[in-house]
Design a protein that fits this description.
This protein is an alpha+beta fold and 196 residues long. It has helices spanning 31-42, 48-67, 100-114, 192-195, and strands spanning 2-5, 21-22, 93-94, 119-122, 124-130, 150-155, 160-165. A three-stranded antiparallel sheet has the order 5-6-7, with no helix packed on it. Strands 1-4 form a two-stranded parallel sheet. The longest helix is centred in the N-terminal third of the chain and has 20 residues, at 48-67.
C-alpha cells in the first residue's frame, strides 16, 4: 500500500476533532435507540441501510481501535466515561479528553508506520486521477463505467511528477474549508480531492 500525504502524515482535519465516537456500549442503550436518534437527527435525509450498518458495526470497530491502543477516558469504576451529545437519547459518546481525533490519529499512525506492507510518501500532492481519458477515450461526468488506474502525483520536494498505478485508488482528502476566506479548518483542507 502506498499512502500519499500532501504534507505530513500527522497534518489533517482528524487531529483537530475534539468530540468522540458514538457507539452502543452499555445498557440501557440499544441499536434500535441509536438508529432512531440518528434518523430523527437526519430529518429524513438518512440512508437507512447505511445508518444501520454504521451503528451495528460500531462496537466491533471500537474493539479494533482499542486493540490499536486508543485510550478512551474511563470513570472511577473502570468503565468508559460515556458522554451524551445533542441528538442522542443515551450516553454513548466515547472520547479521549477533548482531543479524541488526535488520540485516534496518533494510534493509527503508529500502526501504519509499523506495518511492513505500507509505505508512506510525505509531501506528495495528487494532481490527477488516471482514467480511460489517459488511454485516449473521451470521459465526462456522465460517462458510464469510468475506471481508475491510479494517479499522477507531484513530489513537492523534487518537483518531479510520478505515476502511481494501482488496482484500488482511495481518496481520503478531507474537506474544502480552506477555499473560504474564513474557516476553522487547517490550511491543507483545500478541496483538491473533490476537484479531482
Amino acid at each position: 500500500v502506498a499512502l500519499l500525504c500532501k504534507t505530513t502524515l500527522s497534518e489533517s482535519n482528524t487531529s483537530f476533532a475534539q468530540g468522540g465516537i458514538a457507539s452502543v456500549t452499555y445498557d440501557p442503550d440499544t441499536f434500535e435507540k441509536h438508529i432512531e436518534d440518528t434518523l430523527i437527527a437526519g430529518d429524513g435525509h438518512c440512508n437507512l441501510a447505511a445508518v444501520e450498518q454504521v451503528i451495528k458495526e460500531a462496537p466491533s470497530q471500537i474493539e479494533e481501535l482499542l486493540k490499536w491502543g486508543i485510550d478512551f477516558d474511563k470513570n472511577e469504576q473502570g468503565l468508559f466515561d460515556l458522554h451524551r451529545e445533542g441528538g442522542h437519547s443515551e450516553h454513548r459518546i466515547l472520547h479521549h479528553k477533548d482531543n479524541t481525533g488526535y488520540e485516534i490519529q496518533e494510534s493509527l499512525i503508529r500502526q501504519v508506520k509499523a506495518h511492513p506492507e505500507i509505505e508512506v510518501y510525505e509531501h506528495y500532492f495528487a494532481i490527477e486521477i488516471l482514467t480511460q481519458h489517459h488511454l485516449g477515450q473521451i470521459v465526462t461526468h456522465h460517462t458510464p463505467g469510468i475506471e481508475c488506474y491510479g494517479a499522477y502525483v507531484l513530489n513537492q520536494q523534487s518537483n518531479n511528477i510520478h505515476t502511481f498505478l494501482s488496482k484500488v485508488t482511495l481518496l481520503a482528502t478531507g474537506g474544502i474549508g480552506s477555499v473560504y476566506s474564513t474557516t476553522t479548518n487547517p490550511e491543507i483542507a483545500t478541496g483538491d480531492g473533490i476537484a479531482m
